[in-house]
Amino acid sequence: MKAPARIAASTGKPLVLCDTVDVLRVERDRVTQRVFVRVSVTRKPLEELVLVLGKGAEVASLGGPSDPSFSTKEDGRVVISPSAPISGDAAFTLLLTRPAPGEDARVTMEATRVEGAASSRSYVLVEANPLRSQETLPDGTALLSRVDVEDLPAVALPFAAAGTRAYRVTGAGARLALAAPARAVIAPPDTLLVDADLLTVFGDGGARVDRRRFTFETRLPHL
After folding, report:
1. In 10 A of CB 8, how many CB atoms?
2. What element of type H or E holds 220?
3. How many other CB atoms sit within 10 Å of the CB of residue 171?
4. Pairing of strands 77-81, 49-52
5. pLDDT single digits (tens) 77-132
6. pTM (2 decimals)?
7. What is the DSSP string of 11-80?
8. DSSP label at residue 35
């Protein structure tokens, strides 16, 4: 005798595999941290995605499928809530901002983690900035391993450019500390140097100066 069989739905937790890429840039008036998160969810749809971020960062923007919203916890976690549960592959991007470093010019950031992920690959990239002399501090490479940009996987390679430094995260709670004093711009002899702002960008995250303009007045035959 044959009877139709029904396969019971899985009652287990969602299985989450993820890749994260943190791109740090120290600017004149702020520190930006672009975060790229790619997840693969199986077994059961995921209602929300919890990211563990370093304290002191503010979320300026969030992008992803299903018009996601977010809420920030006091302990530095960010809860992403899409309008539809996450199933299969999905990617989210965040822009985090911090105030510019003070007189000590020290910047410390933690690599982003996905809470509850069964497996993850994480990378930290530091963008070059001609206005800042960026140097890794001795206590800033805990649980990070320096890698060549050419050896980055496909998920992180689009975020690298000339002068980018790359690190692979080797453990939870990895952080990077940088000394980033502003570079002094010294004009040649007999030259008057005037510094002015060139472009101001307005958006949801406020206004920021994106470029600088230098005006030279000199009696030299060439410069």
Report:
1. 5
2. none
3. 11
4. antiparallel
5. 899 999 999 999 999 999 999 988 887 888 999 999 999 999 999 999 999 888 88
6. 0.78
7. -SPPEEEEEEEEEEEE-SSEEEEEEEEEEEEEEEEES-EEEE--TT-EEEEEE-TT--EEEE-TTSEEEE
8. E
